[in-house]
Specification:
This protein is an alpha/beta fold and about 325 residues long. The protein contains ten helices and twelve strands. The protein has helices at about 15-30, 45-55, 70-75, 80-100, 135-155, 185-195, 215-230, 245-255, 280-290, 295-310, and strands at about 10, 35, 60-65, 105-110, 160-165, 170, 200-205, 210, 215, 235-240, 245, 265. The strands form four sheets. It has a six-stranded parallel sheet, with helices on both faces. Strand 4 (about 105-110), helix 5 (about 135-155) and strand 5 (about 160-165) form a beta-alpha-beta unit. The longest helix has 22 residues, at about 80-100. The protein is globular and about 60 Å long. The two termini are about 35 Å apart. The relative contact order is 0.14. The mean pLDDT is about 95.
Length: about 325
């Protein structure tokens, strides 16, 4: 706890889903000097905007969470934007961190960086053993390039940059827009809308056979802050729960928790995405003591409750 009151922290993406929990965690740890610029205030694609941010905030720590993200549909529709925006934001930020001689930089990557057919559980050493799943490869590769930059800058310039690989996140405050949301908020909204409208069925993409691992956003924020406090090595580190569930079972579980009793229909003409996702989480536990704490059903109930209370604003 004595670590954070002396830090001046910039959180890119701090007004977003994960970022809001990171900012909450910083405040609980006694950090009072927090800058969380919104995209309309600081365009992280612009070098001068980042330089101005560093000059004005004078950070001792930067947590780079800002990203352009979405589900399979959004990734298929906007591969160019997802590649450029995510790559350029990170590249320019890391370069400015070097020029500013920033004491520590935490870069949050993505599980989409892993090869499509990574053996389960995914180990950090598997990261370069193949090409990512095609529907989100531009996004995954853009974020993966930032790992290379962090390691290169550590080697040449001594920049203390660490890189984290969180699994799929979920929780209150998530994006429930069906045009861009990830699987859990998309299913929550779909089930609640169908229940409220008395619809006899919902239709879901793919076969339902792929598996995913999910991490509650508040737990992910805790992992990021523990790494910021305790981890100073060049190797990437997974952040996850270590638990795997099929999309078919997930959908049935969300239907039960939202009391949607209709039929679940699958559309196999739509893409499934990566066949399996489940992380080896031992490195995070060993290096900085992180373990996911929130039971999955408890996290889903909290997510559903938040959406029910905020649906008119989503």
């Amino acid at each position: 706890m004595a670590f954070w009151p002396n830090q001046r922290v910039v959180v890119t993406g701090g007004a977003g889903f994960l970022g809001s929990f990171v900012v909450d965690g910083l405040k609980k740890r006694g950090c009072s000097q927090i800058v969380a610029p919104r995209s309309q205030e600081v365009d992280l694609r612009e070098r001068q905007a980042i330089a101005r941010l560093f000059s004005e905030a004078r950070p001792t720590m930067v947590l780079h969470l800002a990203a352009v993200v979405g589900g399979i549909g959004a990734n298929r529709d906007h591969p160019g934007r997802f590649f450029y925006d995510n790559a350029i934001m990170g590249i320019e930020l890391i370069e400015q961190a070097r020029q500013f001689q920033l004491p520590k930089l935490v870069v949050v990557g993505t599980i989409c960086a892993y090869p499509k057919f990574t053996p389960v559980p995914f180990q950090e050493t598997d990261l370069w053993n193949g090409y990512p799943e095609e529907t989100n490869a531009p996004y995954g590769l853009a974020k993966k390039a930032l790992l290379v930059q962090c390691q290169a800058y550590r080697h040449e310039y001594g920049l203390n940059a660490i890189y984290l690989l969180p699994v799929n996140l979920y929780g209150p405050r998530d994006n429930f827009d069906p045009r861009s949301s990830h699987v859990i908020p998309a299913l929550v909204r779909k089930c609640i809308d169908a229940r409220n409208q008395g619809a006899p069925y919902i239709e879901c993409w793919g076969t339902g056979n792929p598996t995913r691992e999910f991490l509650y956003a508040e737990d992910a924020a805790e992992g990021i802050l523990l790494a910021a406090e305790r981890y100073d090595k060049p190797e990437p580190v997974n952040l996850g729960s270590g638990q795997e569930i099929s999309i078919r079972d997930l959908t049935a579980l969300i239907a039960r928790l939202t009391t949607f009793n209709g039929e679940i229909r699958w559309d196999p003409t739509k893409p499934d995405g990566q066949p399996r996702r489940c992380l080896d989480v031992n490195t995070a536990k060993r290096e900085f003591g992180f373990l996911a704490r929130t039971p999955f059903e408890d996290g889903l109930r909290a997510t559903i409750q938040w959406y029910e209370q905020n649906a008119n604003r989503s």
